[in-house]
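Sequence, please.
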């Protein structure tokens, strides 16, 4: 099942690859260990010194190969680790993705969420470190987030195995997110033009086009193995032509658009925290009415959420 190919086939019963993806240090490997147990294989990703762990998960409805990918902050790779994670999504016939997020840093996680959803792979989101988030007063409206992204959301505290039974229930039934957002008109035109020139792959052509417009040079080698030099030149010329229409770098503008989309989502799902902040503000009475103290009090409540 690929969301972008409109095939409605259920997940195959045979070994089916699930990639655990997320920012560094969010608990991917702890969750990988719980899902796969002792028998895992760790090897360097071909052509690199980056280690990737593979392990099996056996469920009633099938056998799955879980891949613990290196932590990443973006799927427009800036480091060898990030390139490996992107290459796994591009080359390994991944059937679905499980994003592990640190609930304390949802904004950072959503930047990856938006890229994964753009790739059109079946997806579910694990909001890990729920314990630390709650102890900082960060409460995410999971139901709302699940509605906005139209994917399952599983809150977990991996180190205490909280939420793992729910994750096991959903891991074989990820969803095709219906969430989407548009870039501006000129970028959308360029995306459309480039999309028509791209080869089929495991991920949506739209996401590849956005990566190329972001100036992702690391995709070039893969492109050369799939399409002719003259088509690559045409893509380059679309990129150059589009770039001349803007003052800022396209990669920066694309990232800013994603940040805006992430912030709009955050505004909806942090409502309870904002209400809590409002309650605190009220209880501070006159203090909170003072321009400087008011800002400081509100900031101290809200900043951990951002
Ligand atoms: N409090 C708390 N700590 C957690 C939780 N999950 C994982 N940790 C801790 O967070 C740290 C990072 O966990 P890892 O599983 O190594 O994170 P990772 O995402 O694999 O990190 P990278 O591979 O470096 O990207 C470890 O010290 C874990 O024990 C959780 O739910 N709550
Ligand atoms: Mg790890």
């Amino acid at each position: 099942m690929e969301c972008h190919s409109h095939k409605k086939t259920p997940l195959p019963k045979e070994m089916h690859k699930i990639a655990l993806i997320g920012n560094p240090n969010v608990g991917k490997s702890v969750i990988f260990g719980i899902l796969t147990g002792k028998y895992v294989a760790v090897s360097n990703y071909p052509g690199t010194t980056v280690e990737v762990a593979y392990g099996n998960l056996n469920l009633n409805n099938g056998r799955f190969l879980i891949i613990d990918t290196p932590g990443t902050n973006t799927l427009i790779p800036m480091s060898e680790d990030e390139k490996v994670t992107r290459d796994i999504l591009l080359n390994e016939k991944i059937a679905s993705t499980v994003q592990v997020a640190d609930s304390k840093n949802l904004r950072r996680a959503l930047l990856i969420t938006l890229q994964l959803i753009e790739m059109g792979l079946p997806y579910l989101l694990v909001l890990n470190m729920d314990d630390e988030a709650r102890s900082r007063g960060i409460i995410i409206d999971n139901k709302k987030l699940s509605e906005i992204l139209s994917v399952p959301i599983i809150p977990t505290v991996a180190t205490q195995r909280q939420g793992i039974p729910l994750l096991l229930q959903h891991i074989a039934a990820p969803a095709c997110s219906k969430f989407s957002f548009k870039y501006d008109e000129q970028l959308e035109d360029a995306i459309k033009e480039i999309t028509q020139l791209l080869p089929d792959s495991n991920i949506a052509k739209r996401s590849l086009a956005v990566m190329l417009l972001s100036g992702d040079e690391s995709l070039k080698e893969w492109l050369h193995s799939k399409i002719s030099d003259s088509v690559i030149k045409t893509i380059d010329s679309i990129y150059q032509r589009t770039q001349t229409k803007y003052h800022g770098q396209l990669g920066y503008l694309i990232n800013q658009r994603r940040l805006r989309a992430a912030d709009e989502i955050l505004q909806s799902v942090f409502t309870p925290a904002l209400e809590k902040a409002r309650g605190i503000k009220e209880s501070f009475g006159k203090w909170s009415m003072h321009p400087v103290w008011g800002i400081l009090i509100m900031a101290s409540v809200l900043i951990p959420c951002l």
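Residues 6-13, 280-306 have pLDDT under 50 and may be disordered.
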